[in-house]
């Protein structure tokens, strides 16, 4: 009885906190992390080729490997947050690690001895040696580890500030995802314009030093907001619980299935700490896993061995994670397509006329502004115009299902890479007309704004697909695994980046001709066939869209028994509509 009173007091105390007033403190951390990551990542291929003197394909793969590692590390950060430290302390410690990495990276950009000497007058360049590359890679690794603690936790921590048992606040949760991505996109816009301009025209020391200082200040700001936050206690390792269900099901694989699911093991005392918002209800698929919840004669229910018996809620946690897998995989290829903006699209821009006037030239990396602005406009339109209209038709708080939203993003992404191939043909035609095919460092008299359509389409696609993906993971993941769910979003980005590296390497290898020709040449894009690479990605995305539609058609939303603010329980069916093909 005392434990129940203590728990009620804890929930009551936390519900007085949170809400919109916490958003400035949380968003400040996300904004500065994105300033640092995007401000460098958008221009990293330029830094690696002009400052570290790497070949183009090696630089492109370094960029995507860094992006992949930075997006894979959230699994570690999510595990620490969900199992032990909680989201607040994970974000705080990770931000400090990230700041240290940024300081190291800034120092390496400032001190001449940490970079190779400038190219001589014959454009003969000495590539960075092992020691110089080691410092660079250590700095990037610290940044990746820091991102791993920030990325999965900030989005989940922000959503935690709204009480889902309150219908008014629950609607704000889904709007929060749009505005979280909007704020993130706005900071990215500043990064690819202001910071990239500083890097190209003032120096890398200032270009990296400014976001480093901002990151340091954001850590202080985030910690100051501590008294205002709703803090949900970590519920133990989610991966251990999933493993326990799997082991228990294997141990009881020969036990006959019960005739009535109501006979399966339930234990409120075990499940309450990991199901504050409501318990997962039994589903009829993946019945093999249900065997983990069958009560056998040798099971001791007063002090259950969780490696032999699991509750229905814990079994359904594992089912939820398995169900999300195919949808997770569908998001990988979109990131592969998107990744080319920071590599080959950037190099296209470097060869084109970027002058707005005789004295001002757009930095090549700032072309990402044509991704960010359409993305921000699409998010604002979606949240303020589209959702209210769609809500009247569908009755859903978020307007349309996240599966429909993701599907729209996939279609637009296909169009983006399809268009990119034709733009590359036009760029090379201009190079041929002016006799510049053999002069990779000479500007081609064709406007860089020809690249704007492919950048813009990628931005619109991201506004639909990426936010829908994020909503999907947060909504469909078990409540106690929401940091891990956000990490799944970033691991899809990681897998897409690594797939890009693999695809670039394979195409570079197998498209090489005996005369030195290559679809993706190291030193002269004018003599390559980048358009074929873009169209290859387009075909892969078409196949991926077909796969996604099939996954969406058969997907089963998690059913949950929702706890209201008064403690009453009601049954929900996932509050989504099935997508129809």
From TrEMBL:
Topological type in the membrane: Multi-pass membrane protein
Pfam family, one: PTR2
Alphabetized GO MF terms: transmembrane transporter activity
Keywords assigned: Membrane, Transmembrane, Transmembrane helix
Residue intervals passing through the bilayer: 88-112, 133-159, 179-198, 205-229, 360-382, 402-423, 486-512, 532-550
GO cellular component: membrane
Compartments it resides in: Membrane
Family the entry assigns: Belongs to the major facilitator superfamily. Proton-dependent oligopeptide transporter (POT/PTR) (TC 2.A.17) family.
Protein name: Putative proton-dependent oligopeptide transporter family, major facilitator superfamily
The organism of origin for this protein: Rosa chinensis (China rose)
